[in-house]
Amino acid sequence: MTTDTLLDARDIVSGYGPTRIVDGISLSVPNGGGLALLGRNGAGKTTLMCTLAGRLPLKEGSIRLSGSEVGTLSPSQRCRRGIGFVPQERQIFATLTVEENLRVADLRGDWTLERIYELFPRLAERRQNGGAQLSGGEQQMLAIARALMSDPVCLLLDEPFEGLAPVIVEMLLDVLIRLRRESSMAMIIVEQHARMALDVAEQAIVVERGRIRRSGHRDELLLRWNEIEDMLAVTH
Fold it and tell me: Per residue, what are the HEC states of 206-223?
C-alpha cells in the first residue's frame, strides 16, 4: 500500500449467513480518487459496499483507511473515521424535515448547511418539508447531502441514479463530477449505467459472482467497450 492510498481493502470475503457473496475482492482508492464498481445484478456489488461501510460483517480480509484497520469497526465508527455511505434505499428519516435530517448527520466538519444548500438549492427550498413529502429525486439529493454532512474522506454511493427521471440524473451526475473536481474526497460508485459511473470515476472494476473479472483505467475500458458491455449484459 502506497502512502497515497486512502482506502485499501484486501481479500474481502462477506455475505449473508454461510453464503459467500463477495469472494476475495481486493481494491484500493487513492486520496481524491474515484472507483466505479460495475457488474450485473447479483454480482455482489452492494454486498461489497455494505461491507466497506460496516453494514455487513467482514468474514475474511482487511479494510484499511489511511493506514488504520477499520474492518472491525461499527458503521458509526467508520463514519466518524471518514467513510460516508449513500445506500441504495436512501434511508432518510421520513418524519424529520430536510434540515433535521441534515443536522442529525452533522459532525461539525467542512460541510455546513449553507454549503449543502449551495450544492442542492432544491433542498434549501424544501428545508422545512418532511422526508416523506419529498419526491424520489429530492430524497436522493437529501441522502447524498446527509452523507456529506458527516464530512467524509471517502464517499460510497450505491446506485445513486436508480429510478430517477433523466433530468434529475443529469443534475446529480453534474453534482458528483463537481465534487470530484473541487474536493479531495475519494469516491466509490456502484451504477448500472456504466458510462455514467465512468464519468465520475477514472478507475473501474467489473465484478462477477463476487470476484473481480476485469479492472483498469476508464480510458482502457472504453477502448474495449464491446467486451465490457458483454460482461454487464443482463442474462435471462
Answer: EEECCEEEEEEEHHHHHH
Phi, psi at 192, each rounded to 5° = -65, -30
Instruction: Give the domain ranges of the chain.
Output: 5-90+153-232
Average pLDDT over the chain reads: 93
Q: How far is CA 213 from the centre of its chain?
A: 20
pLDDT at 2: 40
Reading the block at residue 173, the C-alpha cell is 451526475
What b/e sequence results for 177-191 when a residue is b if at least 16 CB atoms lie within 10 Å of its CB, and e otherwise?
A: eebbeebebbbbbbb
Per-run averaged pLDDT (10 residues), the chain, 236 residues:
79 94 96 95 95 96 97 96 95 94 89 96 96 95 96 96 95 96 94 91 95 94 86 64
At 58, list the grid cell.
467482514
What CA–CA distance (Å, rounded) separates 89 from 8? Answer: 26
User: Which amino acid, one-letter code, is at 82?
Assistant: G
The fourth-level CATH superfamily of domain 5-90+153-232 is P-loop containing nucleotide triphosphate hydrolases (3.40.50.300)
Phi then psi for residue 107, to 5 deg, are: -105, 20
What's the pTM?
0.93
